[in-house]
Amino acid sequence: MSDLPRTSREIRLTALPERGLPRPEHFGLVQAPLPVPGEGEALVRNRLFHVPAALRTVIGGGLTDTPFPALFPGDTLFGAAVGEVVSAPAGSGLTSGELVSHWLGWREYAAVPVAGCTPLGDLLPDPAAHLAQGWTAYGALTRAAELRPGDTVLVTGGAGAVGSLAGQIARLLGAGRLVGSTGSPEKAERMVAELGYDAVLVRGAEPFAEQLAKAAPDGIDVLFDNVGGEQLRAAVAAARPGARFALVGALSGQLAAEGDGTAAPVEIDSFQLILKRIAVRGYSGLDHPDVLEEWNSRFGGWLRSGEISFPQVRIQGIERAPQALHEVFGGRHLGTVVVEL
Fold first, then answer.
1. 144, 49 in Cβ contact below 8 A?
2. Sheet strands (E) in the chain
3. Is the pLDDT of residue 27 over 60?
4. Quick check: pTM over 0.85?
5. What's the CATH architecture for 134-286?
6. CA–CA gap between residue 81 and residue 46 (Å, rounded)
7. DSSP of 276-332
8. Eight-state DSSP code of residue 269
9. Alpha-carbon distance 21 to 259, whole Å?
10. Which residue among 85, 133, 178, 181 has the highest number of C-beta atoms inside a 10 angstrom radius?
């Protein structure tokens, strides 16, 4: 403990944009006193943290009925992190030097409630893999969409942290044809070459519904939707009778140039929902706590066998985190963006 620094750097929201998405200048790298753990807390030195697009939704407002608090100027950002235990209360079950996952990223050191620390063990071969968002994709495909062998599956936002694993998982669960969407031809090429997609639709290249009709001429059985908007509308039109839709994100609204990222309105043909008997379900992993353990077990096996990859981009240094978030908002990267400390 005597070798510890007196201060810890962290990323705080310093201002809200007057319009549009937050930019790097709306965040600051702040030197704060080293956290002092309270009763029932462990001191953790962070090694890695995830940079998610979903932060947009909590910056300056947030949504009701979610477990994540809104962020306002002066607040430190938060998110999934992997860190090393520096100290822990006696009897907590945590040991110094042990790697744990928790939700207080975006800072070098964190005082984390013991109940919020999950020891990593050796279930996954790479500590960074614990920041993968595949558990959301796995749960939505198995619980909400109930994917069946031979299904034609559409994954919207297929290059992001969730989507880059959703397509691979769908294939491993037996998808017959796999169609994805993304924002650039470069990422589309990589999704076919590296992630196993049969076809990838590029937003804005031509009307989305026309692209989908060409890529899945016989229609789709499953939608794994990260985006909403026109892509959801097109999926309804392309759905086969009895199709199952799992809605996990709404990037069309979250990352819109206007608005605050908390609404994603879309007009869809409800007659089609009725006539085709389409099942539409919103999915949250928090409703299925059993999924994470099941996912980690399968994920670890798939990683070791080479049946799945964990696409990731590592950004070195906490000072580069605001720029990394800006790039995530802009859809620059494929896979999970991780800051390494």
1. no
2. 7-13, 27-33, 41-50, 81-87, 99-102, 109-113, 118-119, 152-155, 177-182, 199-202, 220-225, 239-247, 279-282, 312-316, 336-340
3. yes
4. yes
5. 3-Layer(aba) Sandwich (3.40)
6. 7
7. TT-EEEE--GGG-THHHHHHHHHHHHHHHHTS----EEEEESGGGHHHHHHHHHTT-
8. -
9. 9
10. 181
Q: What is the pLDDT of residues 87-142, one digit of tens each?
A: 999 999 999 999 999 999 999 999 999 999 999 999 999 999 999 999 999 999 99
Which token pair is 296?
């980690």
CATH superfamily of 7-132+310-340: Medium-chain alcohol dehydrogenases, catalytic domain (3.90.180.10)
Q: CA 240 to CA 154: how far, in whole Å?
A: 12
Q: Is the pLDDT of residue 173 over 90?
A: yes
SS3 state at 29:
strand
Residue among 255, 312, 253, 250 nearest 284 (CA): 250
- Mean pLDDT over each residue of the chain, to the nearest integer: 95
With 90 as the cut, is the pLDDT of residue 20 above it?
Answer: no
